[in-house]
Specification:
This protein is of the alpha/beta class and 476 residues long. The chain folds into 2 domains: 4-55 and 400-452, Urease, subunit C, domain 1 (Roll), CATH 2.30.40; 57-387, Alpha-Beta Barrel (TIM Barrel). The chain is built from 14 helices and 19 strands. It has helices at 79-88, 106-117, 137-140, 143-148, 177-189, 201-213, 222-225, 228-245, 257-268, 306-318, 333-336, 355-367, 371-386, 468-472, and strands spanning 4-7, 10-13, 16-18, 20-25, 28-34, 45-47, 52-55, 57-59, 91-100, 124-131, 153-157, 193-197, 249-251, 273-278, 323-325, 403-413, 431-441, 444-448, 451-452. The strands form 3 sheets. Strands 8-9-10-11-12-13-14-15 form an 8-stranded parallel sheet. Helix 5 crosses helix 8 (228-245). The longest helix has 18 residues, at 228-245.
Amino acid sequence: MLDLIIRGGQVVTPWGVGSWDVAVQGEKIVAVALEGALPSDAARILDASGKVVVPGGIEPHAHIAAPIAGRPGEFTAPPEAVSRSALFGGTTTLTDFAIQMGDFDIFQAIDERTGRWSGNSYCDYSHHCMLLGEVPTRVMEQIPEAIQGGFSTFKIFTTNIRPKENIPEGEGRLVGMGHLSGIMEKVAANGGLMFVHSEDDDIVQYMYKKLAEEERTEWFNIHEVHNNMSEDVSFRRVIRVAEWTEAAVYFVHVSAKEGLHAVREARGKGLPVYGETLHNYASFNADDYKQPDGMKYHTYPSLKSEEDRQALWEGLIKGGINSMATDEYCTDFATKIAGRTTHDITGGHNGAETRMGITFSEGVSKQGMSLGRFVDVTSANAAKIMGYYPRKGAIATGSDADIALLDPEFSKALSMGDLHIGDYSIWEGWQVHGWPVTTILRGKVVVEDGQFFGSLGDGQLIPRKIGGDILSRPAC
């Protein structure tokens, strides 16, 4: 007898969209069949009539239980809180960062993250390896073993992000082009992929000083610091280094049309270059900073113009941007609005829960994004690029039974009562059309009818191996 049959929904699979039934045995999908073709003696039959059935979402970029910049000893929300809220939002896998810095090597960083997550997550998870500053040779030599151990992605920054004078000695993030080339060579030679926060630090630091000299350091000028030129120049430098080293590159939080154009041009040359944006970048623009407490909208690099915002949607729908992320960085409201200047503003927000719903509402319901493309940008592409696929990111025989049901008729202005983390949300009052209503993690129904049925420890660490096609060409 089957454990679960999902019946009557519009199912989005790798081969198309149709009115199929999905069979689950244990933690796996065991069949996707024509309506009525499966037996009716399952332990449970879940009626999905009127719903869209998609793979559980994959969050490619989250900072969970992470140090808050400029606030020593304080951390963003922990796995317990973020994983629960993610499941309410249809996301079943989170990917955060194991941070290597100074004397802390890659394996110590992975051990720290694994210890923090093990037994403390409601959903599945993995970690990128984050390499900061002047990465020692001994640390670079650990890259092959980390990849073999299932940690296949490595993040670096081409900027310190914040003003140099605000960064404690030894805590700089910037990885120079020389060190970047060395890291890329190791990663490329061993089947890994680079995640890059790409801004030109010279431009960023110059603009911090310029605004200070002009006495224009109010937070709502932050987009002048983290500007379009910085993204353009940096993306193109990184792509050139990637060409020299034959490395695959994933640009995190593309925020400007120039970044989108650089990714498209590289992909047009056949390079394995990928890009993500954030759902707040695709829904707000720099004018929103001028609202009272408008710093609540900020995530580094920054919101850009309305033209940039529209370009990001065009890239999501038509190609050039591969995935929708959040850069999850959940703090309370008092912490979020404490910084009032370009020099001390706090980035990030609690976005993992709203990512799939906002993408469906804004992309599918309002702009005609196809259901197949919706699955690509919320699940399948991240799974392929980061090495979860086909275990994750697909409704297909043999894949994990990570499944979300969305109700396209759900229509209301979001309130805090609809959300399950934090004491504020930039999405409060946002009118949505379509929202996740049921979530299944490896065969277990964990969210249904507004109720939560998950248990701490349900989440598992998922090892990853990236396919050769992803690393050799623009494969998705």
